[in-house]
Amino acid sequence: MANIKASKKDILTNRRNALRNSHFTSRMRTFVKRAQIAIEAKAEDREALVSAALQIIDKTAGKGIVHKKTAARKKSRLVLALNASR
Fold this sequence. Notes:
Number of strands: 0
């Protein structure tokens, strides 16, 4: 445990940020997984699900939770899979 008051505050801040980041990361993974399942099943609404997943990926990258290149890679792979399923 930290002894310095500022360090104790940093620990609290880091815990709060980690909880928030895990929420957004989990949300992003959920949307990506839904889109991938829809693509594999050739569902009728797969384009809408991919579009929603792309928006969530952009929002997560915009908040700085995932790196912008990671977001670009995820988006690219989703779109490539969608185009291949047509």
